[in-house]
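Morning!

This is the sequence you dropped in the shared folder:
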Amino acid sequence: MKPPSAEKPDYGNWVATKFIYIPGATGLFFLGLAIIFPFLIVVAALFLFVALYFAYARYLFSPQGADLQEKIRGLVLSSLDWDGEGQILDIGCGSAALTIALAQKYQGARIVGIDYWGKQWEYSKKLCEKNAEIAGVADRVTFLQASAAALPFADNSFDAVVSNLVFHEVGGVKDKKDLIREALRVTGKGGKFVFQDLFLWKQIYGEPDALMETIKSWGMTKSAFINTGDSTFIPALLKLPFMLGTIGTIAGEK
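The structure's back. Tokens below.
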């Protein structure tokens, strides 16, 4: 492993600036119109509140705030009961923060990070490769553009598979449980897995007990559900369904 660079990796922020600027600009627009049409002050206040909420969330996710992104990624690492021998897949690696953390923790392992990336995200394969180089793990990490819905790997390819807050974002998949099944397809026999997502969002995944029964029916040796949304480091204002209030972790062994 190469020594890490003095430069720090850029992992970005899960709250894109558009979620702040667009409602903020819209709120200011309606605020201006409220001079003529006073009733629009309510609309302006609503948009400005949304902008402030996402600005607050972005700050808390950042290292300068509460560093929530790092802490939430840490929930995946702490749930992975793996000896670090072999290959591990990170599904939806984004800016490679979790991929790199895996490489730093399991220094004898090979790590593959896949992501669809795309224009709606502030991440790219190039950014991932740069971050891995800065962190000194580029010689053991590979990044590929691929969809979580159709992983370009044979059955039982990996000794461990992880994913962090990705499955609910994958488009074109009616039943998100299919993404879990696809991830388990490439997990090797006896391999370990940890998936963290909005598993408590019943409109997407249904009841947690039913979800776990479905996963068990696929022949998993071990599987457990952890309500990570209850983590004490998550502020109350971020425990809303569309933010962190419905996150959970599914961990086990195939």
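Headline: Residues 77 and 182 are 21 Å apart (CA to CA).

More detail when I'm at my desk.
O.
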